Amino acid sequence: MRQRNSDYKNDLKFNFCDFSLRFQKIITRNFSSADDFFENPNKITLTKKQHLKLERSKSIDWKKLFDILEGLNVNLVSIDDDEYPEELKTIYSPPLLLYVRGDVSLLQKKKFSIVGSRKVSPYGKSIALDFSQKIASTGQVVVSGLAMGIDSFAHKGSLKSGKTIAVMATGIDICYPSFNKVLIDRIIENGAVITECFPGTQPEPYRFPIRNRIISGLSWGTLVVEARIKSGSLITAKSAIDQGREVFAIPGDIGKLYCQGTNYLIKNAMAHIVIDINDILPYRTKREIKLSQDEEKIFNLIREGVMSFDDLLEVGNFDFGKLSGILFQLELKGLILKVSNNSYRGVENGI
After folding, report:
1. How much of the chain is in helix, strand and coil states, percent to nearest 5?
2. Is 158 in contact with 113 (CB distance < 8 Å)?
3. Per DSSP, what are the bridge partners of residue 271?
4. Could you list the pLDDT tens digit for every one of the 351 residues in the chain?
5. Among 200, 278, 313, 346, which residue's Cβ finds the most Cβ atoms within 10 Å?
6. H runs (alpha helix) in the chain
7. How far apart, in whole angstroms, are the C-alpha atoms of residue 143 and residue 151?
8. Which of 239, 243, 244, 237 is CA-nearest to residue 222?
């Protein structure tokens, strides 16, 4: 990390602009850093709205901002810093700046996420507390989203035996949900609270699905305890699948709405069924697989979100026969899975 928060001025200005993930991806492909972008923003075509965001970034009250960051003892971690987690760099449009309260070193530890429904059954609560405590006792850091229900119990269980990271969808200075203030304070003392959102950012609904990619992206695996079919937990699970991480699910009562999501994942072979902690731990073992330079290039493109055969042809700059051979080898090595006639996803556990 840099010595002072003031050394991150351009990173903070860029973060303040709150550009879409798609546009951030374009910027990272065309500029080496936030400094590079602000020195020559006209290198790419900007919309009127994007120009307006750049203009607004000039009005940041730096004294007020640094007072907030220093008052909360916030550490800034840029994607270029050594402290930035390597596994997060491989996801589609990784956050370029993280705000961290608590133990920054946990970003470098092995991490496993536990997520689930806000409305939780007594069974779900028991599972979340038990599994998070057991996972944390192995030295892994338990990651979750600080929401009511399964997330909160995952944090509480992990604190009984180890460390936890809470990923927020608000500014680092916003306590949300407000009733979790005591839990947030405990996590800061015995773990870390992180966000990619500029200070003052409020809990708007669209930010939570965007946040979920960070929960799964930090983790080698994700356990879904209870979830409805249409839920943030299923979004997190699908993000984990897209990122090539392992997904696990607790089977539940087929007559309960809050079990339909987990049962759906299991039924469709999108998640490993879990009835015991030992159904998870063996997957932590790293698989040493040697890749050729071409195989590594294609594998990384798929993990970054380039998944269709046609897009891989264009971006990878291979001919039809060469690319077909590379994809076949990656399938043989168990690193990718063909999910349709023309698209692929990673299945390597990312550890």
Report:
1. 50, 15, 35
2. no
3. none
4. 777 887 999 999 999 999 999 999 999 999 999 999 999 998 999 999 999 999 999 999 999 999 999 999 999 999 999 999 999 999 989 999 999 999 999 999 999 999 999 999 999 999 999 999 999 998 999 999 999 999 999 999 999 999 999 999 999 999 999 999 999 999 999 999 999 999 999 999 999 999 999 999 999 999 999 999 999 999 999 999 999 999 999 999 999 999 999 999 999 999 999 999 888 877 765 444 668 899 989 988 988 887 889 889 988 889 999 999 999 888 877 678 887 778 888 764 433
5. 346
6. 9-17, 21-30, 34-39, 48-57, 62-71, 86-89, 122-137, 150-159, 181-190, 207-218, 232-242, 260-267, 293-303, 309-316, 320-332
7. 9
8. 237
Angle ∠(130,169,274) on CA atoms, nearest 5: 25
CB neighbour burial string for 87-100, b if at least 16 within 10 angstroms, e if fewer? bbebbbbbbbbbbb
Instruction: Work out whether strand 141-144 and strand 75-78 pair parallel, antiparallel, or are unpaired.
Output: unpaired
Closest CA to 144 of 193, 84, 87: 193
Tell me, what amino acid is at 300?
N
Distances (CA, A) of 25 to 20, 30, 345: 9, 9, 19
Residue 229: name the closest of 277, 177, 280, 268 by CA: 268
Span 104-284 CATH architecture: 3-Layer(aba) Sandwich (3.40)
Q: Are 95 and 203 in contact (CB under 8 A)?
A: no
Give dist(CA 120, CA 101) in Å, integer.
28
In single-letter form, the type of residue at position 249 comes to A
C-beta separation of 156 from 131 below 8 A: no
Domain limits of the chain? 1-71, 104-284, 293-346
The pTM (predicted TM-score) of the whole model is 0.80
41: cis peptide before it, omega within 30°? no
List Cβ neighbours of 126 (8 Å cut-off, separation of 6 or more): none
